[in-house]
Automatic annotation (TrEMBL):
Reactions performed catalytically: aldehydo-D-ribose 5-phosphate + D-glyceraldehyde 3-phosphate + L-glutamine = pyridoxal 5'-phosphate + L-glutamate + phosphate + 3 H2O + H(+); L-glutamine + H2O = L-glutamate + NH4(+)
Protein name: Pyridoxal 5'-phosphate synthase subunit PdxT
NCBIfam families per UniProt: PLP_synth_Pdx2
UniProt keyword annotation of Amino-acid biosynthesis present: no
Organism listed in the record: Clostridium muellerianum
Family: Belongs to the glutaminase PdxT/SNO family.
GO cellular component entries: cytosol; glutaminase complex
GO molecular function: glutaminase activity; pyridoxal 5'-phosphate synthase (glutamine hydrolysing) activity
UniProt keywords, alphabetically: Glutamine amidotransferase, Hydrolase, Lyase, Pyridoxal phosphate
Functional summary from the UniProt entry: Catalyzes the hydrolysis of glutamine to glutamate and ammonia as part of the biosynthesis of pyridoxal 5'-phosphate. The resulting ammonia molecule is channeled to the active site of PdxS.
EC number of this enzyme: 4.3.3.6, 3.5.1.2
Length: 191
């Protein structure tokens, strides 16, 4: 099994390092050929508008969307969550539009408003997981097909819909590997 990390912009190296540390075969996804050679993909944090633009310019947007709709596991962190959402508050644009969520971009404020907390997320681990929020979005509304995994201050910050996982926070910026292991278990079930 090989897990791809979209490597067009943003914090992809941190995800790759976490995956490698748990023995996972990984691939930086930059081309359509790369995309064809992975069993699951992580969409990292970064600038969602920039990543969306590059996805279009490299002709990866539609093939990636189709693979997700056909069941390929995908996990979007922060900007990745925005890319997955069907709706973005106060924005007519959307990107992959595969998850039945509406997100609020920069919901917690600017870079200076970044913060860290810990939560137990039963589906992922029985132990508290560190959650790092950097200019983070949150899910402002969702369909009943979406399973809410975590809320912070009554805001939805982690959710799953079938083969799609989305988190507002950055597990790759901590030493905790539980979310990466959870995503690998999603991919295992799909192989």
């Amino acid at each position: 099994m090989k897990i791809g990390v979209l490597s067009l912009q943003g914090g992809f190296i941190e995800h790759i390092n976490h995956l490698k540390s748990i023995g996972c075969d990984t691939l930086e996804v930059k081309t359509l050929c790369d995309l064809e050679n992975v069993n699951g993909i992580i969409l990292p944090g970064g600038e969602s508008t920039v990543i969306g633009k590059i996805l279009k310019e490299t002709n990866l947007l539609t093939p990636l969307r189709e693979k997700i709709l056909k069941g390929m596991p995908v996990w979007g962190t922060c900007a990745g969550m925005i890319l997955l959402a069907k709706e973005i508050e106060n924005d007519k644009n959307n990107y992959l539009s595969v998850m039945n969520i509406k997100v609020k971009r920069n919901a917690y404020g600017s870079q200076i408003d970044s913060f860290e907390t810990k939560k137990i997320i039963k589906e992922v681990s029985p132990n508290p997981i560190p959650l790092i929020f950097i200019r983070a979005p949150y899910i402002s509304s969702y369909d009943n097909t979406v399973n809410i995994l975590c809320e912070v201050n009554e805001n939805v910050v982690a959710a799953r819909e079938n083969n799609i996982l989305a988190t507002s926070f950055h597990p790759e910026l901590t030493e905790n590997l539980e979310f990466h292991k959870y995503f690998l278990s999603m991919c295992d079930k799909n192989v």
